[in-house]
């Protein structure tokens, strides 16, 4: 039975993590994973998370029961608050805790497959490398198509291409996956005006948008600013648009291993919301039964405690500020060397990632010759840059581009 299993293609991110571990070169730099590191390239436990852990562990009533089917109630409520602020008004919504952002993306894909059998799912070109995998794994019969997003020549957003493709080629009932902020892998987000144009197309064409929100707070440090599009979809057009938000707490709380996230499905009326809830419960029961408890309590404790919330804001400022600083440092080092390429966008892109324009071959040379690791697409994760290695990285990129 098992001998017929077809060979599977290994995941790039995890292959690189292993290769990096095995590399014995002291100067090696890992710029591939989307996991925040401090200026010593070390994992960073947010001070707000440390304090929340202390509070929880000092509580004699802390237990390890399973949560209700929709998740740990305080987590679900703070997840909704972070996502929508006070903008929901009377809109009907169903929110469920999930296994981080991946689980939220997966759950909505499973849900839509189950209730609506969409013909096509539209993904940005390029997108997070797991989006196509999640949809293929959920239902290979759903056609995956790419909408133009990144103009590789100019390193800018191809908004005209995106809008015209959706207008001309998308059909009613298609799903479109959008990223709410700090787009992975390009670091390029639509402006507010452009978001309005995108929302108009979704509405006119009767598409179902999924707003993947993995980096709220990472772009500018301000969750309200970074969450603008989430609130825009909730408040626009007399509540006519149905959509979902797949939310991750991995990055903005540094809780990568705890697997905390939420799925929000915004509907037109309460009857629909009740049916959505019943179906989500059914799927979740079959898949996971219950959601992780400890990380959920950490997030809820931070958001509900005014002092810890203030600390969390400082933590977001620390992380987003360090990334902005590294963007500037790398930009300055490359321009100082007159490295061929267009580097101005490193300053205007936001969040963890930017595309470098390096070819797959150049990425391989960078790794094999100089021990600097990027994804094969040329995506660079600023989290691995530090004041100690930025000059070496710039020099390495310069060498590869001037070979
Ligand atoms: N969505 C995007 C765009 C991402 O980049 C990521 C993580 O890299 C996720 C979702 C999911 O993250 P997690 O499952 O770790 O919360």
TrEMBL record:
A GO BP term, please? Answer: aspartate biosynthetic process
Catalytic activity line of the entry: L-aspartate + 2-oxoglutarate = oxaloacetate + L-glutamate
PROSITE patterns per UniProt: AA_TRANSFER_CLASS_1
Q: Name one GO molecular function term.
A: L-aspartate:2-oxoglutarate aminotransferase activity
Matching Gene3D superfamilies, A to Z? Answer: Aspartate Aminotransferase, domain 1, Type I PLP-dependent aspartate aminotransferase-like (Major domain)
Q: What CDD domains does the annotation carry?
A: AAT_like
Asked if Transferase is a keyword of the record, the answer is yes
Q: What is its cofactor?
A: pyridoxal 5'-phosphate
Q: Which residues form the Aminotransferase class I/classII large domain?
A: 26-397
User: So what EC number does this one have?
Assistant: 2.6.1.1
- Gene Ontology CC terms: cytosol
Which Pfam family, just one, is annotated for this protein?
Aminotran_1_2
Which keywords does this Swiss-Prot/TrEMBL entry list?
Aminotransferase, Pyridoxal phosphate, Transferase
Q: Spell out the note in the miscellaneous section.
A: In eukaryotes there are cytoplasmic, mitochondrial and chloroplastic isozymes.
How does this protein assemble? Answer: Homodimer.
Family assignment from sequence similarity: Belongs to the class-I pyridoxal-phosphate-dependent aminotransferase family.
What is the name attached to this protein's record? Answer: Aspartate aminotransferase
The organism encoding this protein is Trichoderma simmonsii
